[in-house]
Design goal:
Elements lengths: L1 E8 L3 H12 L5 E3 L2 E7 L2 E7 L7 E9 L2 H13 L4 E9 L2 E9 L5 E10 L13 E2 H7 L7 E3 L6 E2 L8
Parallel strand pairs: 1-4, 5-8
Antiparallel strand pairs: 1-5, 2-3, 3-4, 6-7, 6-10, 7-8, 9-11
């Protein structure tokens, strides 16, 4: 199964947890002091909010979460076949989880995360990423603040909204 993933930066976690819990008709699957996540089956979505936006509120990134390595490999191969700039983090820790993931960026600069969750961790990430504005080529060349991704494909030369693109 593939599950749509949306991560939104918010200014007041408690108020937003209450709002989205009422909207979805269920409480979050995980709540931390700076983060909450709903794993919904109907609609099939992994919806996360956090206060880690560093002044940037609203949609941080979109993604597709898969259940197995075969689906993740197929998505990666599809991006590579299209010669998309692909930022490959591989195994990483972020958003209270261990994951295997890679990133692509759409023509508007919106980051898309393709990932498979491997397990949970007790902290948001292995280290606190610094907020850095970066373009897709810069991100590809230097990596994000919380990982050292491998990049393939043609850089698309569009701005990435925030360094949090390397996480969640």
């Amino acid at each position: 199964m593939k599950r749509f993933h949306v991560h939104v930066h918010v200014d007041d976690l408690a108020r937003n947890v209450a709002f989205y819990s009422a909207m979805f008709g269920t409480q979050p699957a995980r709540v931390e002091p700076d983060y909450a996540k709903w794993m919904l089956d109907e609609p099939a979505v992994n919806f996360a909010i956090s206060t880690r936006g560093h002044g940037h509120l609203g949609v941080d990134h979109l993604g597709i979460q898969v259940d197995n390595e075969e689906d993740l490999s197929a998505m990666k191969a599809q991006a590579q076949a299209a010669d998309m700039a692909l930022i490959d983090e591989g195994a990483t820790s972020c958003c209270y989880a261990r994951s295997d993931k890679h990133w692509i960026v759409d023509p508007q600069g919106l980051p898309w995360e393709h990932f498979r969750t491997l397990g949970t961790i007790p902290v948001f990430s292995g280290g606190e990423p610094e907020h850095v504005e970066a373009s897709a080529p810069e991100m590809a060349a230097t990596g994000s603040a919380c990982c050292a991704p491998r990049t393939t494909g043609k850089p698309i030369g569009i701005p990435v909204k925030s360094a949090s693109t390397g996480c969640c």
